[in-house]
């Protein structure tokens, strides 16, 4: 197995002379992209055998929290475009996990529900999802985990239990 270059992780400050990549390693965009890669690899290692992607799991979670959303509402909740959500919902419906029903809210809208098969898969996935969250944050102390989640939430403008846009700081 290839040894990972950890020279940029040292406790002592690293100069560009010691590591010419330090400028790259200092960039927030680079770090966030690497964080995304780490999260995806952690997710794939845990969930790969179930055949669920991270995007599909997000849709499962959203529908489990609020069944009966229309596709446009689901897209808005996930911050995705409607075409992407529409394709995913069609695929999950074809696999028997979701079903779409006519919406009383609009003539053209379809509400999304999990089927019993979808609910069973989601229930099976829940403990794995919890384990992923622990694995992703494992190198951080509890106070660092809260700080990271607060800062990411603030950066993305997400109102959640870590950050409220209307709350005093």
UniProtKB/TrEMBL annotation:
GO molecular function: DNA binding; DNA-binding transcription factor activity
Key words of the record: DNA-binding, Transcription, Transcription regulation
GO terms classed as biological process: response to stress
PROSITE patterns for the chain: HTH_MARR_2 (PS50995)
Source species, domain of life: Bacteria
Keyword Transcription regulation part of the UniProt annotation: yes
Domain HTH marR-type, first and last residues per copy: 25-157
Entry-linked Pfam families: MarR (PF01047)
UniProt name for this protein: HTH marR-type domain-containing protein
Organism encoding this protein: Neopusillimonas maritima
